[in-house]
Amino acid sequence: MTEAIPRIPLDEWTRSVVDWMTNADFIFDSIEQVISWVLQGLYWGMDLIPALLFIAILTAVTYFFAGRKIGLSAFVFFGLLLIVNLGFWDDMITMLSLILSATILSIVIGVPIGIWMAKSSTVEAIVKPILDFMQTMPAFVYLIPAVAFFGIGMEPGVIASVIFGMPPTIRLTNLGIREVSTEAIEAADAFGSTGAQKLFKVQLPMAKTTIMAGVNQTIMLSLSMVVIASMIGADGLGDIVYTAVGRNDVGSGFEAGLAIVVVAIILDRLTAGFGLRKRKS
Amino acid sequence: MSKIKVENLTKVFGKKPNRALSLLSENKSKAEILEKTGLTVGVNKASFEVQDGEIFVIMGLSGSGKSTLVRLLNRLIEPTQGSVYLNGNDLATVDQKTLRNIRRKDMSMVFQKFGLFPFRSILSNVEYGLEIQGVEKKQRTEKAMESLKLVGLVGYEDKYPDELSGGMQQRVGLARAFANDSDVLLMDEAFSALDPLIRKDMQDELLDLQETMKKTIIFITHDLDEALRIGDRITIMKDGKIVQIGTPEDILTNPADDYVEKFVEDVDRSKVYTASNVMMRPETVQPEREGPRVALQRMRENGISSIFAVKRNRELIGIVDASDVRKLVDEKQDDLTSAIKRDALKVVEMDTPVHDVIELTAETSYPIAVLEDGKLRGIIIRSSILAALSGKEVNLDD
Ligand SMILES: Nc1ncnc2c1ncn2[C@@H]1O[C@H](COP(=O)(O)OP(=O)(O)OP(=O)(O)O)[C@@H](O)[C@H]1O
Ligand SMILES: [Mg+2]
Asked: How far apart are CA A172 and CA B348, in angstroms?
């Protein structure tokens, strides 16, 4: 009787799970490596530019590409000067490379997922609740898997920011593509576009404004993660705030907080401005 | 061979559309099927052929399935049943790649709401069809400019769609379709969004272009006047079904049922009817062999005060008045010729629109002669026109 049922090969299963984990470990390592390259590349690039030149460039970019608003350009100029004056420039660059890394990864991962959702209602039905879950979960919770898989430092900070910040990019990419008028889609089809031509020549350009709104939100969410990320060893302005809280040092906490707000406003206005810029004129 | 042939084409919207097919073959109505199965019948067993170079108009009330039908032709909507043949090839069986090529080269579409790409300039909108075929920039710009010229939009190529009026945007849509040089144009209510004046201009423009381009055009409209103006043949749809296919005249003079009749009720018939529709059989004399006495006798018999004089082969010579003929009889003359008048007579051709005939009736007191190759085929008097315009007494034969 017992001979009839073959023995359940638990040992074999365990071995393959362990094998898989070893492989997975390799995957986590390479993810970390990629993130680290992005981070260092960004930091290196931004650090290369002298602070004053950096400020001048950013002010010019603000003026010419975000609607020629003098007030906003002045804010960028003086806000960044204030950060230099407070001695936070290097920390600001560190924080910025964290935020931008998280944003770039969110776009690279989030936009394709958003496109996939827009193309398939099944995928949309599956991904939407996951996004809701990701956004309702307290941001702190993301630190746990980040640390578990990647240890401490900047990289897990980026990972936590991506998980926390990516949903708006996914959502609004999906929304933006779904919003493209049926007439435009029909026109693209009726002239014999391939799927890729339709996507790149019609859907994405028409969804651009909406997608940029998502990216803008993603940047803001990543920014709100910088203080939290510093709890697992991310450097930058967030770390100064975190340390100040630990030491009950209201003064430097306020200074660093103010610097973060300045960066936040600049990033927000700039990306919002890019999103609205309709066409090359 | 016909350019497009549609056989038994059916589209049912909804899940498991096959449920509706057996009901359709039992001749159940669209409403019954909706009630029983929750499925919407878009097009119900449509069959027709469109000839090369023809303007084929599809009309019907809102929801009758016109848009669905035209989208079945280029498979923007997949048919539930039936087939579409383009140049004899069954489109249902072709693979995606061939279908794309057909859409690129053989069929272009113009949309009711234009379907322009707002972020592209007018030029690059018109270029789109060529761009996705991989045509070189220089070549496609050339082609696009040519096509913009055709629709009279040169000078606007760098503008964006939202900077143009509705009529101009529609012409961009036309230009985009023309740029592809395809033989078949599918136009879904292409002019419906335009105001009446521009719309009439566009119709004229389309007819002018058609003179030179000789495309096969499937034109959808829910406006009968438009259909009559531009259609070589007209199809009338109701609840997804084709109720009648015919020339504009067929539709007007011979409506298949009450639905079609309702449609044609308020057309200005004078624009559609021709002289041949309202003419009567003429009374004639042949001066070559008949004299004044015969002429007078014939007028008396028919109670008329003048009679047409023709040669033996019915070639029109002129008209004679009863009073003049009586004089000849009194003078005991045998020849009618001296009494024949030609100048006072108005003549029209068989296909002269009744609209133009009406104007002539005011200029003469004689009946109007309808000629074909100079031969008298019929006459028109005022009262027969009025009878025809009120929808009665029309010549349906011929
Ligand atoms: N995508 C769709 N899904 C479900 N039903 C549809 C769909 N498209 C059309 N229908 C239905 O098919 C029928 C025919 O619609 P269609 O759009 O072809 O009508 P139409 O004659 O073009 O009307 P209109 O003059 O308003 O444009 C309607 O009952 C409509 O509700
Ligand atoms: Mg329609």
From this structure: 68
Contact between residue B242 and residue B80 where contact means Cβ atoms under 8 Å apart: no
Measure A116 CA to ligand 1 centroid, in angstroms.
28
CA separation for the pair A238, A224 (Å, rounded): 9
CB contact under 8 A, A206 and B117: yes
The atom of ligand 1 lying closest to the CA of B11 is 12
At A280 the pLDDT is 44
Q: Is B68 in the pocket of ligand 1 (CB under 6 A)?
A: yes
Q: Which ligand is nearest to the CA of B111?
A: 2
Question: pLDDT tens for residues A78-97?
Answer: 999 999 999 999 999 999 99
> Which residues 6+ apart lie within 8 Å of B133 measured at CB?
A192, B104
**pLDDT at residue B390, as a whole number:** 64
Residue B214 touches chain A, beta carbons under 8 Å: no
Lookup: tokens for B230: 């531009």
CATH superfamily membership of A22-276: MetI-like (1.10.3720.10)
d(CA A248, CA B39) in angstroms, rounded, equals 69
Helix (H) or strand (E) holding B167: helix B166-179
Which of A22, A44, A186, A40 lies closest to B112, judged by CA? A186
Contacts with B71 from chain A: Cβ below 8 Å: 186
Question: What pLDDT digit, counting tens, does each position of A26-54 carry?
Answer: 788 888 889 999 999 999 999 889 999 99
Model confidence at A125: pLDDT above 90: yes
The answer to whether the CB atoms of B160 and A279 lie below 8 A apart is: yes
* Token pair for B117: 């790409």
Nearest to B350 by CA among B368, B362, B365, B324: B368
Determine the distance from the C-alpha atom of residue A189 to the mean position of all C-alpha atoms in its chain, rounded to a whole number.
Answer: 33
Selected from 3.60.40.10, 3.40.50.1100, 3.30.70.2740, 3.10.580.10, the CATH number assigned to the domain covering B275-389 reads: 3.10.580.10
Ligand 1 centroid to Cα of residue B42, in Å, is: 6
Top-level CATH class of B2-106+182-267?
alpha beta
Residue A25 banded pLDDT, cuts 50, 70, 90: confident
User: What is the complex's ipTM, to 2 decimals?
Assistant: 0.76
User: pLDDT under 70 in chain B at which residues?
Assistant: 266-268, 270, 390-398
Rounded to the nearest whole angstrom, what is the distance from the C-alpha of residue B262 to the centroid of ligand 1? Answer: 21
3-class DSSP assignment, residue A23: helix
Q: Is B113 on the interface with A (CB under 8 A)?
A: yes
Please state at what angle helix A143-150 crosses helix A154-165, rounded to 10 degrees: 140
Digit-coded pLDDT (tens) for B206-222: 888 888 888 999 999 98
Domain range annotation of chain A: 22-276
